[in-house]
Structure to design on (233 residues):
């Protein structure tokens, strides 16, 4: 869904794309260095060792921002370009207008274009992609700011309240990353003021939490934490 920008991706990143191994990835980077940025997906067929089969596998994952064809910066595979062009023409416009004009897209009767090869789910996915060409579908990740005063376990003292991230859940509690080498344990009895049968009722992995230090065993590297009575983020 995110795709890879073929004009900026490294050889290592490109090698993970379906249909592209290390050798072909190196050829893409070399071709790019010699000929400049790719302007279209079809131009990739000029890369040594890029055959039709490899192109079919990788094309949908590669993005070209600013390409001559706006579809080259979407997850829509080139084998569907002709269909989209036909849909645009049938509705009184071209592909660029279909992408920019939401009312035009809403007026399209997708059922008219269902075939044995392309079902309604595929058509719906294509139109969802046309709504956001080039946009990253991943949600914005909230960044946790750890206390910069805490460099290692010896900076911890009972009573100190800290922000952390739940990095593991067990039957007896959860472990919280405090931004140092050792993670702290919030025992199940310290997660909240009510009875719970599983820590998963209160916390989830990657959840941002605020904890209070109960005890620190500096020699054994163990940190006991509590969330009881601690206001959460």
């Amino acid at each position: 869904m995110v795709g890879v920008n073929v004009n900026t991706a490294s050889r290592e990143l490109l090698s993970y794309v379906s249909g592209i191994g290390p050798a072909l990835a190196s050829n893409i980077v070399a071709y790019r260095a010699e000929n400049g940025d790719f302007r279209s997906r079809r131009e990739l067929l000029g890369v040594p060792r890029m055959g039709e089969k490899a192109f079919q596998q990788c094309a949908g994952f590669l993005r070209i921002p600013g390409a001559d064809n706006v579809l080259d910066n979407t997850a829509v595979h080139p084998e569907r370009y002709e269909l989209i062009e036909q849909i645009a023409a049938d509705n009184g416009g071209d592909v660029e207008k279909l992408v920019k004009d939401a009312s035009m897209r809403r007026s399209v009767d997708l059922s008219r274009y269902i075939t044995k090869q392309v079902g309604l789910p595929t058509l719906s996915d294509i139109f969802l992609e046309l709504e956001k060409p080039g946009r990253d579908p991943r949600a914005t990740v909230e960044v946790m700011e750890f206390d910069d005063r805490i460099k290692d376990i010896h900076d911890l003292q009972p009573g100190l309240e800290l922000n952390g991230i739940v990095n593991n859940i067990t039957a007896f509690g959860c472990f919280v990353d405090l931004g140092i080498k050792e993670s702290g344990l919030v025992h199940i009895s310290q997660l909240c003021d009510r009875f719970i049968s599983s820590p998963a009722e209160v916390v989830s992995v990657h959840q941002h939490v605020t904890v209070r230090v109960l005890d620190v065993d500096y020699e054994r590297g163990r940190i006991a934490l509590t969330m009881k009575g601690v206001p959460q983020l």
Summary: The chain has seven helices and seven strands. The beta strands are 4-5, 62-63, 161-170, 173-177, 184-187, 208-217, 222-226.
